[in-house]
User: Fold this.
Amino acid sequence: MADFPFADRLAALPPYLFAGIDKAKAAVAARGVDIISLGIGDPDMPTPDFIIEALHEAARKPANHQYPSYVGMLSFRQAVADWYGRRFGVSLDAAEEVVTLIGSKEGIAHFPMAFINPGDLALVCTPNYPVYNVAVNFAGGEVEYVPLTDENDFLPDLDAISEASWTRAKMIFVNYPNNPTAATASKEFYRKLVDRARETGTIVLNDAAYTEMYFDPADKPCSILEVPGAKDVAIEFHSLSKTFNMTGWRIGMAVGNPSLVKGLGKIKENVDSGAFQAVQEAGIAALAQGEPLVDGFRKVYRERRDAICAALSKIGISHRVPKASVFVWAKVPQGFTSAEFCTSVLERTGVVVTPGNGFGAPGEGYFRISLTVPTPRLEEAVSRIASL
Ligand SMILES: *Cc1c(COP(=O)(O)O)cnc(C)c1O
Assistant:
């Protein structure tokens, strides 16, 4: 059988940096060790029943068996607008400023195709969710990485980006609460970013997937759209995946500047045919009635965060106690690289954690722990790490 070579865009993908860990994991598992994976950020708790019931009901409607609208049902987009109003005090025109996505990853991956020409520059804050740089490269664009460092609270130093780069950059990718560093951004930060982007005509893409996974009501993350003038330059990607434990359902949204929303809609019109309407109806139920349950999920994550942070402190591993996200970002002890440390933890305890350099060069020296593991397993992992 012929073995067809992949296109250049696939050949140019960055190497799979977790390959070493995967190999080590297989070797440890082969010794019969009970592996606990704190590697993946996929909520372990099930989708709430009332959302499943809403899907059941919606799936029985013949109208939902036909092609959906590629930009989404107006009723779902209105539910998103209502939710943004209640949650952030942001008013959105459901028809012009909201597009339904088949998960926010779909939208983020397609967005550069609508606005990046070959050779155009995009700024990507890193360590980062790998979809950003890959999507820019798939669209033929170039990436300039903006480092996120501990000294700057894992926020980009906007003044350190050169005038030439600001002028050339078509877009900048930011993500708060951040994966993998678990950092959060203040409204002041977004204000500065929006002001700078308005001066230079740069699109701001904010990935807000984790705004609802906060641990204390006093630390509620904000939306970039809360900042005056944000709609001039910004599009915000959000998702029901993490908030309502719906990663498998594939439902998300992008909101903000109408021309940015429209451009993304044009790509979707030509690539996919939108999200299953029954899933959108279930999404409406989630957005309208889910808040009390989300509050319960937050409590679970908070307990887990406290357990992990206490264990890390006990064994002298430096970290910041996160205010949001489902991750803890910790420093590897002196004398190890990220990969060496993660391999050693795996070999000595059977616990999988993710090496920080897998998310970009400034992640070297760190590792990421995910809180999306049932609490008893997390406690078992904690006790194994504490006995290191
Ligand atoms: C999980 C995650 C998403 C959400 O992806 P969906 O496609 O909506 O499931 C987006 N951005 C980041 C940084 C994530 O970690």
About this structure: Residues 41, 103-105, 129, 175, 179, 207, 209, 239, 241-242, 247, 252 surround pyridoxal-5'-phosphate (CB under 6 Å). The chain has a mean pLDDT of 96. The chain has two domains: 16-46+292-386, 49-289. The first strand starts at residue 36 and ends at 37.
